[in-house]
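dude i think i finally got it to work??
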Amino acid sequence: MGKKSIISGRVPVVYTPATPGDPAVGWRSEDFNELIYSQGYDAYIDRALRCPCVDRTSGQPLSTCRNCLGRGWFFVDRKETRVVSQGMNNKKQFQNWSEVNRGIARITARGVDKMGFMDRIILMDLTAYYSEILRPMMFENQLIAYPIYEPMQISDIFLFVGDATKLEPIPSELYQIDGNKMIFDTSLNEFAPVESINDIYPKLSISIRYSYRPVYHVLEANRELMRVRERTCSFTDEELRDMPLNLLCRKAHYIFDAQKFGESMFDNTVYPTPEE
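look at this
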């Protein structure tokens, strides 16, 4: 009986006959997977999905959605695995400096990890450093700001007081870190310049440099169509095996802006029900 086409449902009328020849040397996917696992970095992988809050007319997500924080994507089903990563530089000689290729990396993952567009990769064995400007706001009686990444350790943090005044270092007892949220002591509001008599709260501006775990998003999954046939001595006994994926990725701060305000994102992962 013929096999149905997965595209149109039509039954093929011609089949190419098998033409077994002499034994040939092939690739063993297990060898590649073992190399990645033995030499790779510990990593978390989060599967990306488009958020259904996206407007069907404009294509824009809801800015108030706590499933995606207004970014249009949410992430579920965290997996712990290992990957191999390397930086990539596409700049040509005499090319003007730009941000086109900044933050790009090549990451190799095992085929079993099933990576796709916008999936998130967190490299747990590596440490990177980032500097940004935070603009804390009052929310539910707390002075909070959201760095793009989750700070591991803050090396430098300064408060802007005025253009004719030295920056004010902020001592560690005046802030605390809660994931990717920083909570500041409200006494810092006294140092903020008042730009308008109509301002309910002064506008703070804080420079910060911190260490974090590198976070990347998949832009393209190369070799996702590459599989190898692994056979035994019998030609008819064969199995298609996934080869490792070569992923073109970019750092998270080139993909998404930091959370501006509000509450934390919902975790939409469906966890297995514990057996009673």
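Residues 29-39 form the longest helix (11 residues).
im so relieved honestly
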